[in-house]
Amino acid sequence: MDCVFCKIINGEIPNKKIYEDDIVLAFLDINPDSFGHTLIIPKKHYQDLADIDNDTLLHIMNVAKKLMLKMQDKLNCDGLTLIQNNGLIQEVKHFHLHLKPFYKNKKDKNLEEAYLLLK
Ligand code: 5GP
Ligand code: ZN
To answer: Is the residue at 110 inside a domain?
Structure first.
């Protein structure tokens, strides 16, 4: 299947990994909307919210919670937005949850710097 996120899971495309277990992988978004913008994806290919099974979905939310605490600690963010796109607005058709840290003061979106703090 020609899926960019399956290729990331298979190691065909490099990624800045910040969390991994048997079910999910979390890595920095290549084109971040904010400093530390992260994606959590299931290792198994599910297209979207309609497709994904509830156990995996719940696991993803638990990982989001864990990573939020890490972002508060390591990035000193002032908030966090979770986004999950479906349908026409979804660019990559492999389920993913966006974690976008929010900062009250403008912060540079440097990928390498965020990676050093979160890896
Ligand atoms: P969507 O609109 O599907 O919710 O967002 C897809 C996200 O995946 C975008 O924010 C985009 O920057 C990110 N993305 C697309 N291709 C890659 C990639 O090869 N590596 C990484 N790290 N992120 C990607
Ligand atoms: Zn996939």
So the answer is: no
Annotated catalytic residue, options 37, 94, 96, 98: 96
14-50 pLDDT, tens digit each: 999 999 999 999 999 999 999 999 999 999 999 999 9
Q: Would you say 65 and 40 are in contact if contact means Cβ atoms under 8 Å apart?
A: no
Does 98 participate in catalysis according to the annotation?
no
Q: Does residue 84 line the site of ligand 1, with CB under 6 A? A: no
The contacts of residue 116 (CB under 8 Å, 6+ apart) are none
pLDDT digit string (tens) for 73-85? 999 999 999 999 9
Q: Is residue 41 part of a domain?
A: yes
DSSP-derived 3-state class of residue 84: coil
Whole-angstrom distance, CA of residue 103 vs CA of residue 106:
6
Query: Which ligand is located closest to the Cα atom of residue 34?
Result: 1
Q: 71 alpha carbon to ligand 2 midpoint, in Å?
A: 26
Q: Is residue 87 part of a domain?
A: no
Instruction: Look up the pTM and report it.
Output: 0.98
